[in-house]
Amino acid sequence: MSDALTNAGPAPAAPLDFIRQIVTDDLEAGRHGRRVHTRFPPEPNGYLHIGHAKSICLNFGVATEFGGLCNLRLDDTNPTREDVEYVDSIRRDVQWLGFDWGDREYYASDYFERMYECAVTLIRNGRAYVDSLSAEEIREYRGTLTQPGRNSPYRDRDPDESLVLIERMRQGEFPDGAHVVRARIDMAAPNINLRDPTLFRIRHAHHHRTGDRWRIYPMYDFAHALSDALEGITHSLCTLEFEDHRPLYNWIIEQFPDLPGDPQQIEFARLNLTYTVLSKRKLLELVERKMVHGWDDPRMPTISGMRRRGYTPEAIRDFCARIGVAKNESLIDVALLEHSVREHLNRVAPRAMAVLRPLKVVIENYPEGQVEMLEAINNPEDATAGTRQVPFSRELYIEQDDFREEPPKKFFRLFPGNEVRLRYAYIIRCTAVIKNDAGAIVELRCRYDPDTRGGSVAGERRVKGTLHWVSAARARRAEVRLYDRLFSTEQPGIDDSRHFAEEMNQAALETVSDALVEPSLAEARPGTTYQFERLGYFAPDADGAPDRPVFNRTVTLRDSWAKIERAQNA
RNA sequence: UGGGAGGUCGUUCAACGGUAGGACACCACGCUCUGGACGUGGUUAUCGGGGUUCGAAUCCCUGCCUCCCAGCCA
């Protein structure tokens, strides 16, 4: 990973968000030994998505801005849901986003032994016990939101007896659910998390890292607080739904004052985005029910999906900076994400010409068999990007949308008798329209003006429209996948009278199998996103072959003609 | 109806007792060999009611609305 990119981020710009404000105050007050140490703690039970990107940018951003460190911690305490495939994808995605955790890649499972010892300590101190109620009984004893719970009959079990039981639980002597280790706090607490929360449960399951060494696994609240303390975390940033857990988090931390860290948990609002879902459960369901083609389907809001779609790490980081961090529960307009993507891609994407729905054009007065190489600018926003040669010939293809036999108002493109410029080439005039027996337009006859060649000073004549095109003889056939928003409703799943999948956008993927692209695109490989002029940004997909490239549409260009047309039709 | 949290332009973030501002979106116009980009201008907001204060989005009281919590998930 390059140093330049490592945990890239500008100095914090004023004003500070509330978390950076807290960190600033902590530093000034000399808290946490004047250190800043955060962590990004995903559970490896799914792929990372744009919501995680927010958390990643926050945790790594805060750490580097304040001269601290951020750990990557895989929170792998539930072997029944987790998998190495997810671990690998998480490492890949965080790195791709541009963040570096150095050698601080930790796993909650590395701490199982210590967590076990902590549980034993709590039992010895009378702060925990082994409960032998069933899951259903525990639920009944817990009470309700408005009624206090009741003590379990095992709550006052002799610590020595609990000690024997926890050891036997560990040895695998009991089936799942037979016993559980619980903290002894307060069954009447108004905060349900304090009503003797479970610390360890029995799970006869194979763990992706610890194998079959353990038959009991710690619960989130216990594992998370201890992991933070063990790693010397100072600021433990998490989402709002854990606000209720903070008293328990603090309780656990207080039980073990000898641990290296004295972390404080701070909660912020998770990201919600319009026209998509950002819950691992729902994303997993889409994958498992094969409603999308895997976690990295370009329609998915996953990091890997966005990467495949052609989004850049810079764009995603910019988006995360723009949305800010607060405690308001917000729903961000996906247009903001698309704006960040366009803004970055506009600066860096090499331009090329491609025709999605070809319409043949014959330049009647252009010599048959002649091929002329025209110079095209690779990126008008970047002078260092240079130029390339594009072949021009008598037979071309333009976009079907760029011709209308009967032009609507403000239609600047080609129509009978009208002149347009062919990008980097000549001004042409449409002289005839050729149709098949069914009346469909199959070909245009045009004449060009040799004095208007692109780039030449002589060609100063002005026309309203400029069209992109490809040479019929030299163009390559390509498959283009046109992606759009995954859901057709702003907040899929908000209406719980129907399943969220019913709100999927059936037009989110349209495959164009016979697009034509300029020859230079034959070299295109995944990793670079191109701008197809006047159409949008497109990313080469690994599904493509040299003779059959495949491109994924990242996002369209802003299209003011589409707006005009919509207004006219309205 | 227990506990926790939150209400500022359409959306989102800011304003830390002193002119409610930015970004996105939207609407005009200009510019353009991408109807892209860029430039200029514009519309729109402090949840309601009281109070404190010279002055309140900010402090106090009160009401209303929204979200989260009853996994041996995280």
What does this structure look like?
The protein is of the alpha/beta class and 570 residues long. It has 3 domains: 1-332, HUPs (Rossmann fold, 3-Layer(aba) Sandwich), CATH 3.40.50; 354-471, Ribosomal Protein L25, Chain P (Beta Barrel), CATH 2.40.240.10; 480-569, Ribosomal Protein L25, Chain P, CATH 2.40.240. The protein is built from 13 helices and 25 strands. The chain has helices at 18-29, 50-65, 84-96, 112-124, 135-141, 159-170, 220-230, 246-255, 280-288, 303-309, 313-323, 334-348, 560-569, and strands spanning 37-40, 69-74, 105-107, 128-131, 180-183, 198-202, 216-218, 235-239, 264-268, 351-352, 354-355, 358-363, 371-377, 387-393, 395-399, 419-422, 427-435, 441-449, 466-467, 469-471, 476-483, 509-517, 530-532, 536-540, 550-556. The strands form 6 sheets. Strands 10-23-24-25-21-22-11 form a 7-stranded mixed sheet. Strand 17 and strand 18 (441-449) form a beta hairpin. Helix 2 packs across helix 11, helix 7 packs across helix 8 and helix 11 crosses helix 12 (334-348). The structure holds one RNA strand of 74 nucleotides.
Considering the chains and any ligands shown, give keywords for the structure.
570 residues, alpha/beta, Rossmann fold, Ribosomal Protein L25, Chain P, seven-stranded mixed β-sheet, 13 helices, disordered N terminus, RNA-binding
SSE arrangement:
Blueprint: H1 18-29, E1 37-40, H2 50-65, E2 69-74, H3 84-96, E3 105-107, H4 112-124, E4 128-131, H5 135-141, H6 159-170, E5 180-183, E6 198-202, E7 216-218, H7 220-230, E8 235-239, H8 246-255, E9 264-268, H9 280-288, H10 303-309, H11 313-323, H12 334-348, E10 351-352, E11 354-355, E12 358-363, E13 371-377, E14 387-393, E15 395-399, E16 419-422, E17 427-435, E18 441-449, E19 466-467, E20 469-471, E21 476-483, E22 509-517, E23 530-532, E24 536-540, E25 550-556, H13 560-569
Parallel strand pairs: 1-2, 2-3, 8-9, 10-23, 12-18, 16-19, 21-25
Antiparallel strand pairs: 4-5, 5-6, 6-7, 11-22, 12-15, 13-14, 15-20, 16-17, 17-18, 21-22, 23-24, 24-25
Helix pairs in contact: 2-11, 7-8, 11-12
The protein binds one RNA strand of 74 nucleotides through helix 5, strand 6, helix 7, helix 12 and strand 19.
